[in-house]
């Protein structure tokens, strides 16, 4: 997929390496804006830019061959766990044509949705809404373009006046470069699989929770419906996968291993949402929206109360028929930490666990292992590696408007770099993602537009938030 010279660049951290190797100039004139990514985060930014009439002369680069527009994350639950009002724009401009409500009206689905009496839309319908927004935005986007590096371009005074974004055409391996004064890094989190389950000899039998809807039916078909499935992980994602697998009729066995000793219900109360969306203190208002929940010390392993009750009821029904929990078809093993994974002859893997609080070890074999272990937000680190010598502090940090904090005097007027989608924990809970999506896009876009109109140095107070 990658050419030899691209591998060389990835191994070489110097800016000079980029300048020495030839590449195709994507556009002879500098663009106003380049956005890295075209997932849900970037789509929300595109809508916000459209609202400000600032979408012209912008380029969006996406690694995937096309956007599937699946609500983040893709887990078996049929419905989102958040209100339809938490779409791409409603909370910031309810009159926008890109609201979920207007989408329903434009596609002749408003009455049908209203008659369903559900405030939470189905994932399939919301994915259609996202696709509709992308199709109706006049935005310049390129798919199958993997961004490799962002390289600063300095003017005669030594200040950074623009950015060169180097990217590879995934299909052809051809290297290209585009230049812009403003860049947004809006890559989506990537599925995380623990190192133990990522070993080459084990990985073919392991799937991430985002692949559940594809791999589970395939595994059951391969084993004649009698396979053994292990789920490793904590929190909402693992609970939804477990509930989905046990709902499938058949003779398969499911065992969920979690490090938690007791499950905790999530706090989705209106009071909590108000604190996150409309903080009362100035310190909380300065924080980027997704960091407010983290500041409240909310646990990422919480599970929706209704789902917990459903799972408990299913466990209770098994206990009525069989008093020995080790003989249940669908089991939950709490306080278990994964310690080993070894491939057996054939398509089976042996997992090893230790019990919290003692040295007891437990091993068992499975036909499929599902890692409900969340996501990682590290793509931006490799892309921005060339910029570390320019930033303020030991690593990448952002201000309240998601603009990267560079050392004073490093950037020329009108030049800026923003980071979104990579702040805070890689939470796999859409309840935490969508309520703040429109606000964070509005903050970044207002900063971008203001910089174009009245470029000036930001104050210390405005740049106090940190990643």
Automatic annotation (TrEMBL):
The record's section on SUPFAM superfamilies has:
FAD/NAD(P)-binding domain
What's the EC number here?
A: 1.14.13.196
Q: Which GO terms describe its biological process?
A: intracellular iron ion homeostasis
InterPro entries, alphabetized: FAD/NAD-bd_sf (IPR036188), Lys/Orn_oxygenase (IPR025700)
Q: Does the keyword Acyltransferase apply?
A: no
Q: Where is the composition biased (Polar residues)?
A: 448-458
Transmembrane ranges, per UniProt, are none
Which pathway is it part of? Siderophore biosynthesis
Q: What is this protein called?
A: L-ornithine N(5)-monooxygenase
Instruction: Please report the organism this UniProt entry assigns to the protein.
Output: Knufia peltigerae
